[in-house]
Known about the structure:
The structure holds 2 protein chains of 2 kinds. Chain A has helices spanning about 5-10, 55-60, 85-90, 105-115, 120-135, 135-140, 150-160, 180-195, 205-215, 230-235, 240-245; strands spanning about 15-25, 25-35, 40-45, 70-75, 75, 90-95, 170, 200-205, 215-220, 225-230. Chain A is an alpha/beta fold. Chain A has a 6-stranded mixed β-sheet, sandwiched between helices. In chain A, strand 7, helix 8 and strand 8 (about 200-205) form a beta-alpha-beta unit. In chain B, helix 1 packs across helix 6 (about 180-190). Chain B is mainly α. Chain B contains 11 helices and 2 strands. Chain B is globular. Chain B has a two-stranded antiparallel sheet. The interface of A and B includes residues 93, 95, 148 and 164 of A.
Amino acid sequence: MTAAHDLAAPSVPLLELRRLTVRYGAITALRGVDLSLQQGELVTLLGANGAGKSTTLRAISQLVRASAGSIHWRGADLAGRRPEATVKLGIGHCPEGRRVLARQSVASNLELGAWLRRDKAGIAADLERCYQLFPRLAERQRQLAGSLSGGEQQMLAIARSLMARPSLLLLDEPSLGLAPKLVAEVMGTLAELHRDGLTMLLVEQNANAALAIADRGLVLEAGAVRLAGTAQELLANAELRASYLGDGEGSGP
Amino acid sequence: MDLIQLLLNGLSLGAVYALFALGYTLVFSVLGVINFSHGAVFTLGAYFTYLLIGGQAGANGLLAGLQLPFALPFALALPLAGLASALVALLIERVAFRPLRRRGADSLLALISSLGAGVILVNLIQLLMGAESYAIPIGTLGALPAALSLGGAQVRTVQVLLLAISVLLLVVLSVWLEGSRSGKALQAVSEDPVTAQLLGIDSDAMIRLAFGISGFLAGVSGGLVGLSVSIAGPYFGISYGLKALGVLVLGGLGSVPGAMLGGLIIGLAEAFVPAAWSGWKDAVAYGFLFLILVLRPQGLLGKPQTTKV
């Protein structure tokens, strides 16, 4: 249990998925997933390709509709809201594949991250903070986002979601396609944001890196929760070690 | 004819094509569909301008003999006609585009429904105003002389005005798109609608904005052409619409500078066709289009995908 849990012991979780089911036509991507997130927690969602990790995030952001089950944000049902509305409620989503606006500058990408905010001074301060967090973005402010390297684009994507000042940040595979050194850098930044109190739901295939910074983790398999526990428990779990942590006999992720 | 007048003809014609094509581009960039009602909104803009300056409806339409109780100067009538055209474009978005978008229909269907909206609009104009042509009298410009002396050559004031207003609008639009928050948000919707949603950008609002601006541009260019060469009946927007479509493809679909460059090339190419061969004007314009598309299928400034994997 994390400190935040004991401290506030809130009756209503920040985010709660109850029996969430999502179907794409004949394919069922999620089968009754339960998940709840308390303020300040960093929870990681692990699993192989196609296990339903991204679908979970897309359902929370209302990019896909739940076929059954519910998603509650601070106790209120999110069903029927538009994706833009979830951003307004404080749910930030840093999508898979970075999705930076390649034809716009780094500075414009960050500016659009704060699209729903009107507090000029606050936006300027957060921009400054983003540049401190990612000094390389500061050097490349005027460059087109499409000209950045993969690692820089990932940093831009994270920084851009922070510009909305979210209460919860959904991160979809931020380590994907990055060199090991950059993975460590990105994870270090997420750990820093966690220490500052940001609540995060981190989807990862790199289970080692994710569990190193997470409080808790869930392992999805074929759209259902296979395992759940604290980061320490999952790191010690033999089954998980064999299939996801890369030290089993020839069965990589 | 002298070179300066010829050059000015080409430039002003090109600028009108560019304005027209930009209207297509704005809507195309957010929806990925060519709005075929755009030419009808252009025509409507010309009629609005004609009525607002105090013009009288001819004898053949339902509105025969109608005249507004006031006559505005052109400088006021033109922007008002632009605004009225913008409202019509918004209405078209509401009835011909949004219902299909809500149902996730194929974009080809939106193209057909926009074509239908355009045809209805043109027929409505014919019903109300008749098929006759109307001229916007030069007197509506007030004290401006009919011709100006430019670099020793005599040029028509109307051409200079056409060029100046078009260039002004093109500059304002470019600055807005590149420099303002809402301009950047519109570009974001154009580049990646899903990401735009995740940034909290309301894509419906941006689509309405694109339609509004595009309608305004169509209305203003309609009024300007009406002033320059008269309104040759309710179908006169069609040839301009097709030409602007050519301009759009020539410059590269969805590219704002491309639309401007394409307009300039087609305008100049047409203007430099000798008067004796004026029947060949369209052939020259479309010949250029054909040639460039053979050499560069994505258009002059059309961009291949730049997204990094």
